[in-house]
Write a structure and sequence with these properties.
heterodimer; A: alpha/beta; 6-stranded mixed beta sheet; 3-stranded antiparallel beta sheet; 11 strands; globular; B: mainly alpha; about 0% strand
């Protein structure tokens, strides 16, 4: 009876030791009749940290929405640790901070406790174990001191760390982070990158959407370069080539000299929200 | 002074009215907190109007038996909220558009039905403007029973409703049954509206849902405290409103809503003239 009303009660908590955290096969996503992602096929091994880069409108957020099970693809297959996204519980999506209602009347620990709601199941109240998990999660992002603070009183970096703690409370082994460093000062950025580095050591797979190609090259195992199609996926050397970047960024190229003498091409003006137009390949 | 307070209580209709106003205050304040936090005020207003055809049909079917009217009105509200959620599901029709279409259509159907049965029009006006002093003992029991069910559901699904209101995407990634919960919340809204009809009527019910919760929201940054304060404000406004209605011969529903509004204005003004406690946090 309950299962008939709530079909997702049959969700799976345990996953096989699959080699890939993520497998996409010929994924096509349409939004309001427009094609947003085309023919995406990709395998990401578990435990890697992956920077997802591409110009605005490349489909980074859309890809995350599909992986999180928020948006159904038009065709193709998505497997998260061998499961369909909507069946998989050990996944956490950290939204862009600007999408969160910071005036909501809750404290930091209330928000982190929300991460426990999926594991608890319906009609059950959080117990001692859940409180302990929340405390551990807050410790790991160094927010224990602010546990009772109202969320509107947090700084930008603290807000982002709180969202990260919520993901940890979910006991996720796949983290999707959408522009987590946007608008943060340098110390806050480094603090968050440090926490992500710790998580990687524990075997958690991290997908990290960003505009910052330099950051992507320096801090991540792999780079996924996207512009509606998969342009390239691999190590920094394999992906950040002149040819790939021209394919991804097309007319919006900007040439930057780096200390290694590489020519980097980026969508630096990404904050203005312009779309990438025309055909690149 | 004591006499002034006790005199109205000598009348049974005042006793019943006061109990009704308190019951309705509790239910509306609790449901109202979620409506205010989720920005669903338009849905609440729309549902309160969309029950009119239910009332009309109930009248034709049962000649005005309040219990029967209650179920017909609830049926119309639930039908409307499910229609709204179905229409806006694909994303082609925005939710507020769907609300506008369903609410205006249902309201028009209600008016059309009522216009064909002129003799009932006077009785139905009680549902437009409320008549809390005319409630019968049976109505009280029904309202108390329904109110208990609403409170139980809000307590039982506290953490789910919290997640759904704060971050609907989190609800989906946590694999909570987001859509059924969403529908449950709009059914609760429908129930709160229908139980309030006799107290304040179709035209004013949205005030009971919104004003106490919005006032409480100004006073606290904790959801549980907000719910408690909203209940206190709504129930005390109900009592004050009925006394005002008794002594100054004002329509009872309007007096209750005005009491809520006065509390809101007082709190809002109090906050305008107080320096902000928390300076804007920097990055």
């Amino acid at each position: 009876m309950l299962k008939a009303i709530f079909p997702r009660l049959g969700k799976k908590h345990v996953h096989p030791e699959s080699r890939y955290a993520l497998e996409l096969r010929e994924l096509n996503v349409r939004f309001n009749g427009l094609s947003v992602l085309e023919d995406l096929s990709l395998q990401i091994e578990r435990g890697l940290s992956v920077a997802v880069v591409g110009p605005n409108g490349a489909g980074k957020s859309t890809l995350f929405n599909v992986l999180a099970g928020l948006l159904a693809p038009a065709s193709g297959q998505v497997h998260v640790h061998g499961h369909l996204p909507a069946q998989y519980l050990c996944l956490a999506y950290v939204p862009q901070s600007s999408l969160v209602d910071w005036s909501f009347p809750v404290s930091v620990q209330d928000v982190v406790m929300m991460g426990r709601a999926g594991r608890l199941g319906l009609l059950r109240w959080p117990g001692r174990q859940d409180a302990a998990q929340v405390k551990r999660s807050l410790d790991r992002v160094q927010l224990s001191q602010l546990a009772r603070r109202q969320i509107s009183e947090l700084s930008g970096g603290q807000k982002q760390r709180m969202l990260l703690a919520r993901a940890l409370a979910q006991e996720a082994d796949l983290l999707l982070l959408d522009e987590p460093l946007a608008g943060l000062d340098l110390p806050s950025q480094e603090q968050i990158l440090g926490i992500l580095g710790d998580l990687k050591k524990e075997g958690i797979t991290v997908l990290f959407a960003t505009h910052d190609l330099e950051l992507a090259g320096e801090h991540f195992d792999r780079i996924l370069l996207l512009n509606r199609k998969l342009i390239a996926y691999g190590t920094r050397k394999e992906v950040l080539t002149m040819e790939n970047l021209a394919l991804a960024y097309g007319g919006h190229m900007q040439v930057v000299e780096t200390k290694e003498g590489n020519v980097w091409v980026g969508d630096i003006g990404g904050h203005h929200g312009h779309e990438v137009e025309g055909r690149h390949g | 002074m004591v006499n002034w307070l006790l005199e109205p209580l000598a009348y049974e209709f005042m006793q019943r009215g006061l109990i009704m106003a308190v019951l309705v205050g509790v239910v509306c304040a609790l449901v109202g907190c979620y409506i205010v936090l989720r920005g669903m005020v338009f849905l609440g207003d729309a549902l309160s109007h969309a029950i009119l055809p239910g009332l009309a049909v109930g009248y034709l079917a049962s000649a005005g038996d309040p219990t029967s009217l209650f179920w017909w009105a609830l049926g119309a509200a639930v039908l409307s909220s499910i229609s709204i959620s179905t229409l806006s599901r694909g994303g082609r029709i925005k939710q507020d558009t769907a609300i506008g279409i369903v609410f205006a259509g249902m309201f028009a159907l209600g008016i059309a039905l009522i216009s064909t049965m002129r003799s009932y029009a006077v009785d139905l006006s009680h549902f437009l403007f409320g008549n809390v002093l005319g409630v019968a003992t049976d109505d009280l029991w029904l309202t108390a029973g329904v109110g208990m069910v609403v409170i139980l559901i809000i307590v039982a699904f506290y953490k789910e409703f919290l997640v759904l209101s704060f971050d609907p995407h989190l609800a989906t990634t946590l694999r909570l049954p987001a859509r059924p919960l969403e529908i449950l919340l709009s059914v609760l809204t429908a129930v709160a509206i229908v139980v309030s009809l006799q107290t304040v009527g179709v035209a004013l019910v949205v005030a009971l849902l919104v004003t106490p919760a919005a006032t409480a929201y100004l006073l606290t940054k904790n959801l549980r405290t907000m719910m408690l304060l909203a209940v206190l404000i709504a129930t005390s406004s109900g009592v004050v409103g009925l006394y005002v209605s008794y002594y100054f011969n004002v329509a009872s529903g309007a007096a209750i809503v005005l009491a809520c509004t006065v509390v809101f204005i007082a709190v809002w003004l109090g906050q305008q003239f107080r320096p902000s406690r928390h300076p804007q946090s920097a990055n």
